[in-house]
Amino acid sequence: MFSRLLAAPARCRRFGTLSCLRNEALPLTSDPQQYDQEGRVIELLKNISPKPVPKSKFPYKEAADRSKRSFLPRVPELNKHTVNRYIYELTNFTYAHGTRVLIKELLAQVVESTPDLLSKQSYLDIVQDMHFYLDDAGAEETMDRMEESTAFKRDIDFHNVMMAFTVGKTTYDGRIERLQKLAAQGVHANANTWYYLFRALRTHSKRFELLELMPEYGVDQEPVFRSAVHSLSRKCGYRELIDFYNAHGYTLDNMDTYMLNRLCRAYLNEGAVAEAFDLAHDMHMSARARANLGTFSVFNTYFINRNEIYNSIAFCHKFQHQFKMKASHLLAYELIDKYLTRCTYFEHWPQLTRYMVHILTHNTAHKNFLRDGHFKLLANYARIHGLQDFVCRAVEPEDLAFGQEMWKALHWPRNVIPSSLDQNSEEFIEMAKLITPTPKTDKDLNPSDILKSS
User: Fold this and answer.
1) Residue 322: its pLDDT value, please?
2) Is 6 left (phi over 0), alpha (psi -120 to 50) or beta?
3) Domain range for 426
4) Which residues partner with 68 through β-bridges?
5) What is the largest CA-CA distance in the chain?
């Protein structure tokens, strides 16, 4: 089935994904003002874009995509070669949060002491790094020093990185103002302008709109392919995502794990759970794209969103058996992080919660991702529902007994992924009822709203 779907050449398949979705406002954020501002950003971008849009001489790279490093590089004896390598290492990796102030000081010292030794790429990296961490004032000072000491100017490449994604809440006033100034000055966009603005958009339909415009303006979609796949997989069905893969030359034979996980997500958008699992299993067993914990998370999130915690646990059993990969710690974390402080309260919430906390806090093989904020939210949720003395880390013998009974009961029938609860054993159904909240009514308290405002 899967080979047949992905085998058809792209030119033979109807590529209608984006035009179908661009008018459907499924936002990453539901702010209507932001939606309108994103439309304004796209219109201004079109106004400064020639056809075709030229490529930039500098690589497109997002600060949010940087890999992690444990240790800062040593300060070298600075010359034209070492200083640019040093700047690259400071700005192209993510270090521990506590090093941010030091990195900012080091960058400022290098710019002040050896401005003429820095390449344009180094200046771009510094400016983007500062912008990413919301230090636009520092970025402007860096460009001032650059223009005083070198022949480099604030051209479109520097404007591009000043419109890139940041760690803060995405706003558009600054981007709109910058685009307006560029238009007034007659400065034209290059392909990187499109890429940085695409990544900054937070509404799916606007992302689809900009993505659809790229071929018209001669902008290669490949640099934002993965970001586009992420957005598409949240909304479209698997056929549409397969079309997009085909259009970019990807099939089952050269698909990687990230693409596999996104395709599974698209199958789940259509409720095709068994088909999604068969795809992941077949790809894994043939060593074409290995399943990982991200694969588990895709399925687990699907069940959590459907209020089917019993299926989350049953899937964990199946995933661990089929892929020989421990996933119970991720199950526990995602239930705590995404579900247990948002769901409608039910009788066995305390037992389920303490058992999931127990899985994480007593797990010696995997990192415990729980933070103080998780414990605070759980305590607030419990207090709202009258559990004044609830301590989620104080697991009781009855909690362990309940958890072990639940873990034993929630197994799907062998080699089957049931499409409904009644296709399971009586033991499964009875346990599922114990951990399933009753349908929510308008009179029910909404703990998540209260917790957000607290």
Assistant:
1) 96
2) alpha
3) 316-453
4) 94
5) 77
How many angstroms separate the CA atoms of 353 and 387, rounded?
A: 13
Whole-prediction pTM value? Answer: 0.84
With a pLDDT cut of 90, the percent of the chain lying above it is: 82
How many helices (H) and strands (E) the chain has is answered by 23, 2
Within 150-190, residue ranges assigned H as helices are 156-161, 173-185
pLDDT of 453: 43
Share of the chain above pLDDT 70, in %: 89
pLDDT in tens, 222-236: 999 999 999 999 989
Contact 42, 217 (CB under 8 A): no
Task: Answer yes or no: are the C-beta atoms of 425 and 413 closer than 8 Å.
Answer: yes
Distance CA 312, CA 406 (A): 12
- Together in a domain, 323 and 219: no
- Provide the pLDDT confidence category of residue 33 given band limits of 50, 70 and 90: confident
Q: Cα separation of 273 and 271, whole Å?
A: 6
What is the average per-residue pLDDT within 413-442? 91
Q: Is 276 within the bounds of a domain?
A: no
* 3-state helix/strand/coil string of 370-431: CCHHHHHHHHHHHHHCCCCCCCCCCCCHHHHHHHHHHHHHCCCCCCCCCCCHHHCCHHHHHH
Does residue 11 fall inside a structural domain? Answer: no
Beta partners for residue 94, in sequence order: 68
Cα 25 to Cα 21, 28, 32, 84, 208: the distances in Å are: 8, 9, 10, 44, 10
Tokens at 8, concatenated = 């058809």
Q: Are residues 55 and 168 in the same domain?
A: yes
Evaluate whether residue 151 is within a structural domain.
yes
- 375 beta partners: none
pLDDT band at 31 (very low <50, low <70, confident <90, very high): low
In angstroms, the CA 148 to CA 150 distance is: 6
394 exposure class (CB count in 10 Å sphere: 0-12, 13-18, 19+):
exposed
Task: Let me know whether 199 and 61 are in one domain.
Answer: yes
Total structural domains within the chain: 2
* pLDDT beyond 50 at 376: yes
